[in-house]
Each structure stands twice: as C-alpha cells, then as structure tokens.
Amino acid sequence: MSVKQRVLSVVSRLLGRTIRIVGGSKSAQIAAHLAEDLSPTVSQNTEFGTIKFFCPGKLPEWRARTLLTKEPETLEWIGTFGETDVLWDIGANVGVYSLYAATKGHSVLAFEPSPSNYYLLGKNVEINKLDGRVLGYCVALNDTTKLDTFFMSNTELGGALSSFGEAIDWQGRSFVAQCRQSMVGFSVDDFIKLFAPPFPNHIKIDVDGIEDRIIIGARQTLADKRLKSVLVELDSERTEYCQGVAEALATSGLILLKKEHAPEFDQGESSAAFNYIFVRPDSGSP
C-alpha cells in the first residue's frame, strides 16, 4: 500500500468514527449525504478525448486509474477498428472499454448482468454524454436463451468473477456464490433474431468462465463476414478449453492473431490470463 493510500485509509477511518459518535438516525443521514456528495469522478485523458468515471468505491477507482495500463492490447485492438465499426462488449463491467471505444467514435452494445456494475456503467455513459453511442443491457449472454441464476462471487462495486447458469470461475473451478441474482440470458444469435440490434463487427468477451458457451450460442453471428474480429480473455493453463474455443472460432473463419497481457501480469495470480485476439483474414483487420 502506497503512502497516499495509507493516508486515505486513515482519514476514512477517522471520518467513520466521527460519524458514529453522532449516533442514531442523524449519523446515517450524515453518512448518506457524504456518500453521495463525496463520490469522486476520475478523469482519464486519452488520444481520443477525456473520459470520466464515477467512482464510489475502490475497485471502480482502480479500473478508471488503470484504463491506459491494464490492458494495452485491448486499446490497441480497438484502435484498429474501422470508422463505422460496431463493438459488442460482453462482460462490460463498469464500461471502461465501452467508453474508450465510444469516445473514439464507435457504436457500442455493452452487456453487463451484475446489477451494481450495470448501475456504474449507466452512470459513466451519462456523465460522458455517450448515451447516443453506448447501448447498455443488464442481461447475460449464453449458449441458450433462458431464465437462470447469475452467481456472484462478490458484490463489490466494480467486482468481477461471477458466472451465469453455473458457479464456475475463469479457471473452471466451482465457487460458493456470495449472492445469487435472477437473470435472463440470451444466445447472441437469438438476441439478434429477436431484437435486430446493430450487428457487431467486433466482439469482446470477458466473462470469467463461460466463454465457450457464448461462442456456441453465436455460431451464425461468428460465421457472418461482417464480423471482423473477436477478443476473448482466457486462462492459458486450461489448454483443452482454449483449444476448443480456438477451434470453434476457426470453424467460423476466425484465426488466432495473437495472445497478450500487460507485463505487470507476468507474475502473480493472473499470470495465466491472456487476451486472445482472433481475426477474419479477408476482413481487412490486422
């Protein structure tokens, strides 16, 4: 923990103690007003313009602060999009990459089933005045269209590591859900047939465990030559799983261009997590 973070932690604890001393309903009222009035907005300058992030917690602030460093390969990928290309961001979280693509000028469909993250996604779209470019949906995508359960390993604002239909994590291991939410899920193909949304030229999948199911439910979409590329985050140590995803995409005419992660992830718990980028050779994508 840095000196700045330690100072902030101390100040936060002192403020909390001061409020509790007041006691009763008055302390709750003060805390509620402070929570609303003191929630910071973090700004990040990018080559396409400034992006603002509503950050009422530590994780949203971290996601905003690391926009340009956490996944440089994702930013580079978005940088290759054609002027009128459409992005589908599946597992958008608080909208970091949806906002980046929209600030660049792209239309984005952002899918985020976590209720708390969807709130922050919507707030971020609002404060950046991007509601004409980013369409947010609080639904899950899957291999079939159905009502099921969204298993949340945590309920933190900006949290991740949750799964639709089965409590499995990004490494394929079962987990005990801290909270379960009722959720509607669609296959990508069904979503397009039912609602005729803007068709994706690029799809980003970051869902922590059911990537293969989403790809199975998107067979027709992936085979459509309007779809130029797919970026999917996978655990490289799940060799057979990754091979299955690659083979399913190859069947649709998409080949692996590269897999990358930032050097800061070369060590530690996430060292096996990579973004795999697949492209259609005849699409003009690099």
UniProtKB/TrEMBL annotation:
* This protein's record includes keyword Transferase: yes
Q: Which InterPro entries match?
A: FkbM_mtfrase (IPR006342), SAM-dependent_MTase (IPR052514), SAM-dependent_MTases_sf (IPR029063)
**Example GO biological process:** methylation
Extract the SUPFAM superfamilies matched here: S-adenosyl-L-methionine-dependent methyltransferases
What sections of the sequence does the record tag as coiled-coil? Answer: none
Q: Does the keyword Hydrolase apply?
A: no
Q: Which segments constitute the Methyltransferase FkbM domain?
A: 89-238
One GO MF term: methyltransferase activity
Protein name, per record: Putative Methyltransferase FkbM domain protein
What is the source species? Answer: uncultured Woeseiaceae bacterium
